[in-house]
Amino acid sequence: MLLETLSNYLAEVEKDLQSLKNYHIEKYEEEILTSTRANLRIRIRFSDGHLLELNEAVTIDSGKLEHLSYRYHFQDKNNSLIFRYDNTPHFNNLESFPHHKHLAKEVIATEKPAIAAVIEEVNKNLSTEI
After folding, report:
1. How would you label 27-63 residue by residue, b for 16+ Cβ within 10 Å and e otherwise?
2. In 10 A of CB 1, how many CB atoms?
3. Across the 130 residues of the chain, what is the mean pLDDT of every consecutive 10-residue run?
4. Beta strands in 9-49 (DSSP E)
5. What is the pTM of this model?
6. Inter-CA distances, 32 with 66, 67, 91, 116, Å
7. Helix, strand, or coil here: 43?
8. Angle at CA 101, nearest 5°, toward 67 and 124?
9. Which end of the chain, N or C, is surrounded by fewer C-beta atoms within 10 Å?
10. 3-state secondary structure of 125
């Protein structure tokens, strides 16, 4: 049951990626460490040079999927940050600590987004640059 929960989550992430366009996957690693723990590392390059990296460490606790750590990083073709969500425990002055979002010139409080929401944000960013 626990391994099935992890497998279902990883399959959901793969499905979410299908909404992206004009990209290739430079790296895709699913590492199932135990029946209750997995790491996910994805690096996606878009045809215009933008880069999206999705990194997570997830576990099953009391039958529920929990994120131990995450980092969702999106940058333009010039390697300039567009946004990055993560839960690295810095910026302890933010009300959402440790969750936060880096933008080009500031860090803001936010909760952890689902990967589907990150992909939607990436698609919106890419469509406004056309």
Report:
1. eeeeeeeeebebebebbbbbeeebbbbbbbbbbbeee
2. 7
3. 81 93 95 91 97 96 92 97 97 96 97 97 86
4. 23-34, 37-46
5. 0.94
6. 14, 14, 31, 21
7. strand
8. 100
9. C
10. helix
